[in-house]
Automatic annotation (TrEMBL), chains A, B, C, D:
It comes from Electrophorus electricus. Belongs to the TMEM45 family. The keyword Transmembrane applies. InterPro entries: DUF716, TMEM45. Keywords: Membrane, Transmembrane, Transmembrane helix. Its main location: membrane. GO terms for cellular component: membrane. PANTHER family: EPIDIDYMAL MEMBRANE PROTEIN E9-RELATED (PTHR16007), TRANSMEMBRANE PROTEIN 45B (PTHR16007:SF59). The gene is TMEM45B. It is a multi-pass membrane protein. It is found in: Membrane. Pfam families: DUF716. This is Transmembrane protein 45B.
Length: 280, 280, 280, 280
């Protein structure tokens, strides 16, 4: 869909997932630390969240495929009638298909089935690789700036694929998760940037052969990276701060209720002491 | 052998090995889990299977070399008579040679000799690398679609070589084994696809310079990947399901025979309890 | 800043950091070894040094950005007025920005906040990557020697980025730290070399298209590498030798003071014996 | 030195080292296994061998530099007199220099100094990288076959550099040591092959632009790889077989002398029993 909306849609998907991950992973790490003390229900919640994420991914991929196929000027599931029909839409459908597979892998990994460790991360890495792979052969024979701005997208896509592949072997590495979140945000905002440059909303077309524009766009990509890491850093801090505040208030409440029921059961008291040790 | 059969032959080899691996590895992992309880004879069987696989590999490689050398229009073991004789066939023979070496490495690794750990995987990775390496210099000066469709083969070949190299250092990683199986299937089906495109059975030649054909073929390669992972996933599930069913029936049988011989030997009873603990 | 000073300034920064690291890391490793015995105050000092290093990095990055923006022929914070304003200076500012971010990551990693492990190394690796990334698109459409001499800089920059990325996962690896120090020195001296070649101080311009000059410059880059490793090796030896001498004199002093206070406390004696065991 | 001897000299060096390593490493692994039982003098010998190897490397590098500088048509240590003097010889000298540095690193690693772990492997990897790096810019503007045959050398050189770099982090990995040995042999025999092709001894010049020759040479490189692995495999087997035979005869001798001195000391008997357990 070669217009602004066609870039805003996938951009929003990636931005949404990037932001969501930048909140989810710090939260999960904090929960994991606390799990030793109490609140055995939270890890279950954490598993459920991953399951829902997988289902949403499958749903989004399905919506994406349907949109690409059945927009008014789409191929309507026809592939060949003398010549290939709307291959661009078919390629986009293929990209969505692999994100759908990644969603299915997420769901399977959360199921009690004996799925190989790391399948979910591998499927995501593959989806990113396929996206980059199809884009790579996508952008030949276009104006210089158009090619360049898409190549920069590939830097985010392939870096994301590589860092996610590392997660297959180094699971639960906080840093790799934050890198993945940041690169998803970069991809999201860069899709918007491509939309703004190639289909400017104010109608003033960019000179697609200007060397100055290419230099600016390269530098602008670096700024997107800086902003993405800033956003992830802020979310990380907010999550950490909030859970700390909440944890303290909760502890205070527990201590009050403890005083009421005190002198009754020494074993529960021990457990609580142990918990507050681990939380401090 | 530049015809349909010349692509179907290696395609069938890779497809066969890919399918076989996608059954063998889940089976071996399930056996390994059960090994702790009982059935000490199965790992021995598992070793024997690997040995037979190596011997079959050597045999196939030998057949491949002989076929390339002694087909009617082959070089018949002549390399140089004023000019190089049928270098294409010699290159294919070289590829088969390295798969033969990989088979020998498999056999040696199963032998009681003190072979360095990971030699079998390294030899397979090398064979894939040599295949890709020779293909890489193979496809210059050909029409655009011919070059492109062979380049896509290289993606599967070099990915396979890289993932097998990882197995040298991360042995018995379920995911890497499934990736290798999938990439072997992709290679197999893609050899068939090359055959269908370059030597169409219905006689309608493809336009080898059309950009649309190149775009379709790129996307089609992604579909092959998706199908390969689907096949491996199905095989994995079937194996897991079957062994579970078989395991339960077997356990039921054992429990019946146990009741008959009960009250006789308390130590054997303990062993059986232990076994069912580990199986559940 | 396309003149000699514009290359001497960043060159000096990198040279300074390379030399400093080649002293700091051996020192930290020696301190860590001794820490088991005594001198619990030194690790604290070591942490403070890292903190100060981070603050200096932020300060240098700030100075660099200001210099690039507000030199007489700089953009003075204007980005666009009909056309892009002084993009070269903006690109350099962007490079400094990421080194500033790396400095902030250093400070955060030394703070008591729950920062993900390896963030400081990742931020440094990213800063090096961004530097190389911007330089890569920087040097098109220039004379052959100019392009080549900048490409060689990229070898040092990307190798530094890769080796620093490895440090994220292999922390406190002496060798990787020495490699990073050496590559920083290489980058520093090579910036000077670029300055000498492109803006010769004696006024005799180099022939920027000569193949001989390109061959010499390539070889000269290797000499820079050899010299950088030599410098790092000498610093390593001097640090090791000095701390050994100092450690022995210190031990001798302690033994003298021990004799004076002898026969008084047997537990302190034990601690000292233990310490000298660990130091020998 | 653009003649047959100029390729035979470095070829012989690499061949020699490759063959030597293919004997040394299996021997060291066998010694290490036995070390637990007895013969504490052998590891010392093993260290001495590494030391001597380092010294020989330094000596060879020195000879190489001197030969390149002071052959009749060499630069005689002159670098610039109006134009660059014999840059080819200077580049070769630079290559030898880094192998000399690698020799020094070997010697230092065997010394009692606190050298960072893996320095010897890193220095060797760097020497190989520098060799490949200089060759890469060495072969422009030459006939097609000349370029191609040197590019193939680079495959062996950079693979060797990469596998040696892996050894920095995975020390004493039998397989990596065998790969390094094989790649050194490949490099050695390929230098000879380059000599045979570019400066044929029988005087019949090869057509340097023929596509057939390029195809043959590519395939021939694969044969060199196969032969190198065969040689390393044979050496490995011979070493293993010989030490086993020797070990058995030695054990038999010990048992005879044991019988003579029997009934005398029960503690020495125990030690011997323990030893034979570990050897079997």
């Amino acid at each position: 869909m070669a217009n602004f909306k066609g870039h805003a849609l996938p951009g929003s998907f990636f931005l949404l997932f990037g932001l969501w991950w930048s909140v989810k992973y710090p939260l999960q790490h904090i929960w994991k630390k606390r799990q030793h003390g109490r609140r055995q229900d939270l890890p279950l919640l954490s598993n459920k969240i991953d399951l829902i994420e997988g289902i949403i991914k499958v749903f989004f991929a399905f919506v994406g495929i349907m949109a690409e196929q059945f927009v008014p000027d789409g191929p309507h599931a026809h592939l060949y009638n003398g010549d290939w029909v709307k291959l661009m839409n078919w390629q986009h459908s293929t990209m969505y298909l692999f994100y759908g597979i990644s969603g299915i892998a997420d769901v399977l990994s959360m199921s009690p089935l004996p799925v190989p460790a790391g399948l979910d991360r591998f499927a995501l890495s593959l989806a990113l690789f396929i996206e980059g792979f199809l884009f790579y052969f996508h952008v030949h024979n276009r104006p210089a700036l158009d090619q360049h701005i898409h190549s920069l997208l590939l830097v985010a896509v392939f870096s994301g694929s590589a860092s996610t592949m590392l997660e297959v072997f180094m699971r639960d590495n906080s840093l790799l998760e934050l890198i993945r979140s940041s690169l998803a945000i970069v991809q999201g905002t860069w899709f918007y940037q491509i939309g703004f440059v190639l289909f400017p909303l104010n109608g003033e077309d960019w000179d697609l052969e200007s060397h100055g524009n290419i230099m600016f766009v390269t530098m602008c990509f670096c700024w997107h990276i800086a902003v993405a890491f800033l956003i992830v850093g802020i979310n990380y801090t907010v999550v950490w701060w909030t859970t700390k505040k909440f944890g303290e208030r909760h502890k205070a409440n527990t201590e009050i209720s403890l005083r009421k029921t005190t002198y009754t059961d020494s074993s529960s008291q021990k457990a609580l002491l142990q918990e507050s040790d681990e939380e401090s």
